[in-house]
């Protein structure tokens, strides 16, 4: 500490103060101090000095300069001293600075107002400051210095970026200092909800610790701990939480039919962290490489642990029919899914210049991730559909060819010439309804001449 320490409160009276001055200020000789004290006691004062105003309490931010003012009248030959009460430290006496703290100084306005200056205020400077006049019975008054300190996050005691296995528990900590003591709040960087446990999700959490129970991939992302105490600026720390898990695959269509000489696109959707190595193979394990025959692409989703895998097979030949596998590997494991490509008759509808959609609505890459039935598609519970590319027309159709056998396709082409509407995009039971309609129509056409 910079302040000169006193061991007894008695030093706050006048005689004790001058005894200390004899020791601490060499320029004051014993004779001078004694004469001053004797003069102060022996000479009758017509009017004793007194304070003319109170000392105002001050609140200041650390690092600023501050000034206390002590106003007196009728000072005469009496002296004014400044002291730090909590630290029992004499700071100044009259024009002299007693403490060895270089940040302390004293000035006055013709002996009427005495100013105590504290530069570059520190938190340790807080407390009561006493202005004292050395009358026989010392006169004192106090002013309080409140030092406020902006919040600061202690990195050495706070969490850094973490990697955790899916299903484990993780606790994030954020230690902050300041005066007054800061409050700490947690938010996700993308403003999504924080999952505390299975029954509690919040937008904001208060406390130095954030406990995440049975963490999942949905909890992956950046978390912000924000410390504030009303003293600007508010500070924050960004902590990235990565959740590792082995690859998982979703296959929307495990059976795909396509005609000879057409092009077809097979699709798989993968989730993995760290990012997986994704590729396609034939059923014999032979890896498929980019060529005129095959075009592969991996489309990174949002969040980034999702990947849309696509394999386009151009100019389909007999040798291209069979099983294809999409494979995903990362350090946590690997998995694969199978898609079988089989031959089908070409559609007889006239290609339109725009993309046609099935009656159930086209499944796009945004809603396919959130489809409630998507998990079941791995086990083949969902009807398969086909994206067919017509190389000669440049058009693309969404079709359920694999749900319609060849006889139904043939019947459909015959009826089409008679004005019936054939829906390529019907799914589930609707395709059966179309088939029954076609068979019934053909029967009427066959029996009509017999009863004419």
TrEMBL record:
It comes from Agrilus planipennis (Emerald ash borer). Keywords: Cell membrane, Disulfide bond, Glycoprotein, Immunoglobulin domain, Membrane, Repeat, Signal, Transmembrane, Transmembrane helix. SMART domains: IG, IGc2. Pfam families: I-set, Ig_3. The keyword Nucleotide-binding does not apply. Its main location: membrane. Residues 49-141, 151-242, 246-344 form the Ig-like domain. The chain crosses the membrane at residues 12-33. This is Neurotrimin-like isoform X1. The keyword Signal applies.
């Amino acid at each position: 500490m910079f302040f000169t320490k006193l061991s007894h409160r008695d030093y706050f009276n006048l005689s004790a103060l001058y005894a200390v001055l004899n020791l601490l200020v060499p320029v004051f000789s014993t004779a001078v101090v004694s004469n001053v004290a004797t003069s102060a006691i022996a000479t009758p004062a017509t009017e004793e000095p007194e304070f003319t105003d109170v000392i105002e309490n001050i609140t200041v931010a650390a690092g600023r300069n501050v000034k206390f003012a002590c106003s007196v009248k009728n000072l005469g030959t009496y002296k004014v001293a400044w002291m730090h009460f909590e630290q029992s430290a004499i700071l100044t006496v009259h024009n002299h600075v007693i403490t060895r703290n270089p940040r302390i100084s004293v000035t006055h306005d013709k002996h009427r107002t005495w100013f105590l200056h504290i530069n570059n205020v520190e938190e340790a400077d807080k407390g009561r400051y006493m202005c004292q006049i050395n009358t026989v019975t010392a006169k004192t008054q106090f002013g309080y210095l409140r030092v406020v300190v902006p919040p600061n996050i202690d990195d050495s005691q706070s969490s850094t970026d973490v990697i955790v296995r899916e299903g484990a528990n993780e606790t994030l900590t954020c230690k902050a200092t300041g005066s007054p003591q800061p409050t700490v709040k947690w938010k996700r960087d993308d403003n999504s909800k924080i999952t505390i446990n299975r029954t509690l999700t919040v937008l904001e959490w208060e406390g130095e610790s954030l406990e995440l129970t049975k963490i999942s991939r949905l909890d992956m992302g950046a978390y912000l701990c924000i410390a504030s105490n009303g003293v600007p600026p508010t500070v924050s720390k960004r902590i990235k939480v990565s959740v590792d898990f082995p690859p998982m695959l979703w296959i929307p269509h495990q059976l795909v039919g396509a005609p000879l000489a057409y092009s077809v696109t097979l699709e798989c959707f993968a989730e993995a962290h760290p990012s997986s190595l994704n590729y396609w193979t034939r059923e014999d394990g032979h890896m498929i490489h980019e060529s005129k025959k095959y075009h592969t692409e991996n489309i990174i989703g949002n969040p980034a642990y999702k990947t849309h895998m696509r394999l386009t097979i151009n100019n389909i030949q007999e040798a291209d029919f069979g099983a294809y596998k999409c494979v995903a590997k990362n350090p946590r494991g690997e998995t694969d899914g199978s898609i079988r490509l089989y031959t089908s008759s070409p559609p007889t509808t006239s290609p339109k210049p725009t993309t046609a959609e099935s009656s159930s609505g086209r499944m796009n890459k945004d809603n396919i991730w959130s489809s409630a039935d998507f998990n079941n598609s791995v086990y083949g519970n969902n009807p398969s559909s086909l994206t067919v590319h017509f190389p000669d027309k440049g058009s693309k159709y969404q079709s359920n060819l694999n749900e319609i056998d060849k006889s139904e396709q043939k019947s459909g082409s015959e009826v089409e010439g008679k004005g019936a509407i054939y829906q390529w995009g019907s799914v589930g039971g609707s395709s059966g309804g179309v088939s029954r309609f076609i068979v019934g129509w053909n029967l009427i056409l066959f029996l009509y001449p017999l009863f004419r």
